Amino acid sequence: MDVLINLTVNGLATGMLIFLLAVGLSLIFGLMDVLNFAHGALFAWGAYAGVWVYAQTESFIIGIIGALLTGAILGLLLEKFIVQPVYGNHIQQILITLGVMLVLSELLKVVWGPNQIATVTPEFLQGSWMLDSGVIIIKYRLFIIAVGLLIFLGLHLLLKKTKLGLIVRAGVMDKEMVQALGINIRKVFMFVFMLGSALAALGGMLLGPYSGVIHANMGFEFGILAFIVVVIGGMGSVSGSAFAAILVGLSGSFMAYYFPALSLAVNMLLMVAVLIIRPTGLFAAKG
Amino acid sequence: MIKNVSKYKIITYLIIAYLIALPFVSDSRSTLLLLTQVFIFAIFAMSYDLLLGYTGIVSFGHAMFFGIGAYTTGVYMKDISSSLGSYFISVALGMLFAAIVSFLVGILSLRLKSHFYAMLTLAFAGLFLVLAEKWRTVTRGNDGFTFNVPEVMYDRVVFYFIVFAAMIGVYLLLKRFTSSPLGHVLQATRENEQRTESLGYNVLTYRVISSVVAGMLAAFSGSLYVITLRFVNTSVFATEVTLNALLMTIIGGVGTLVGAIIGAGLFEFAHHWLSDLAKVHWIFERWIILFGTLYILIVMFLPYGVVGTFRKWRFDRSVKKQVKLIEKVNDNKSV
């Protein structure tokens, strides 16, 4: 029983981190039809910048703000200078964002060095709770789950209750129509791109204390996981991303415990199965 | 016009003659090795260009065919025999495996849109990487293994010529393939899928054929590659391998086979020189930054790559010349 609870908490925490990364990717794709291969690099940049600010200021909260800002600024630059010229051309989008990923992940090594960087859990999140049954719950993991849930609820409210959300949802359904109604869809694109990038950076930042170290290749590693999640969940759907991220997180943590040999392949197999049966994903925003 | 064409033909023959004469005039081993590497990756890049340039599909899993070829040859040389005959068997086997895998992956995934196809191939290549790491009895895991190569191929000069001939052979083959009716259908599906479909061609079938041919040639280059190293490990399945082919193709010019060769040359030489410069300044160790930036700029501003842009320039110039000629004739008439 202890093991089950532990694995579930682990899986949920990982799932939430992947959700933060995947939801931006999913919205960007759903709205703008751009598959951003550089998204994983934003995740890594968020982690490095956030952890650096955290180490300088010794405040975890300021670190998080630093990561969010880094993500948003990089997202803005990326959208303006790289993605805008190639709207509408799928192959060029794939190629160009891939190039950005290469450059950004190498630049990371120039700025912070090629070695991995150790990160500590902030004081108020250290330690763990002991439940009556003897189950140990690590505080930081619960914190990640809480943050993930908050972001999910926040996005849900933003998309379902605000005018901006209405525009975004309408944009995912039919871009031309929204534009024809006199709304500047370019600005909405830019906002969603910045929001998605900031969330990815937040995910990277939170991963630091969770895994203890951050390294330059994490962008690529988690980037692939995020793609898998987006494909399983369906492009453009927040709930789909959340569901698929939790599925991937849980299956990863359970497989690593019960069938270690399969754990690396399980996500890919999941994705292959979903793509073959439902090429648009389980919760695709487009009917 | 005819004079122009022959000028470029003469240059091509001169380059070929130079490459043939090179081992006899220069005894720089490193140049020879570098060129051998260039030829092998040129084969790989040409096979990638068949997908990207001629069929218009972006695959992120091309490394898996390279790896299949590499491992088939490596394992065969190590566990069965390392004679020249068995090298040919191992190449044939590797190409056969690659054909089977690319056929299966193709019929499963080629009906998807370009984005999804790219991701799915990435996932399949990832599965092969995991397989190579876990199936230790055959692949000896992550560390890889060394093996003997056929005696003839021990001589670097001989191997240089073998690879050079292989590259020319693959070039001629692909040239023939892409200008055949089948190749034209591929290019039609690249330009307009619906129209090709409505003309009665089954787009999926043609795409599968293209990916099987590309997969087999990639496996061939993989089995040549491991001979140069006499060693194989799981890095042959790494995503970097696919990315390198992608960069070579883009830089040289998509849809031009010569571009793939030139791209491979530029890429390998740039890698070599810039890594050498790392002794001068550490920033050159991060040569990928320079290269990545160049690549982004090329995708943005030179979407036809080096060779494509050159051809366009030549075409524009010849059009201008003809226009001038016509004007001149008209002028004379009016006079």
From TrEMBL, chain A:
The GO molecular function terms of this record are: transmembrane transporter activity
The protein here is known as Branched-chain amino acid ABC transporter permease
A UniProt-annotated Pfam family: BPD_transp_2
Question: How would you describe this protein's topology in the membrane?
Answer: Multi-pass membrane protein
Q: Name the family the entry cites.
A: Belongs to the binding-protein-dependent transport system permease family. LivHM subfamily.
Predominant cellular place of this UniProt entry's protein: membrane
Entry's localization field: Cell membrane
Automatic annotation (TrEMBL), chain B:
Q: What membrane topology is annotated for this entry?
A: Multi-pass membrane protein
One Gene Ontology cellular component annotation?
Answer: plasma membrane
Single GO MF descriptor? branched-chain amino acid transmembrane transporter activity
Q: Where in the cell is it found?
A: Cell membrane
Any idea which UniProt keywords this protein has? Cell membrane, Membrane, Transmembrane, Transmembrane helix
Superkingdom, taxonomy of origin: Bacteria
Against CDD domains, the record matches this protein to: TM_PBP1_LivM_like
Main location group: membrane
Q: Where would you find the membrane-spanning parts of this chain?
A: 6-25, 57-77, 84-108, 114-132, 153-174, 208-229, 241-267, 287-307
This chain belongs to the protein called Branched-chain amino acid ABC transporter permease
Q: What is the lineage of its organism?
A: Bacteria, Bacillati, Bacillota, Bacilli, Bacillales
